[in-house]
Amino acid sequence: MSRFGFAYDEEFRAQPDAQRLWAVIQRGSQRHSMKTGADQYPPDVAAAMDSLMDLYASRRIAPGLDRKVKARIMALQDSFRKPIVGAVAIIEGLKSSAGQALNGLDGVVVSREDGDRFGVKVEGIEDSKSIRANNLKTLGGIMRTNMFEEGLYEVLSRFNHACSEARNLKKNEVVGIDPQAPKQTHSLLFATKSIDAGQELFVDYTPEESQSLGVAARRKNLQLKFGFTCECAKCQAEPG
Question: pLDDT of 192-203, one tens digit each?
Answer without folding.
Answer: 999 999 999 999
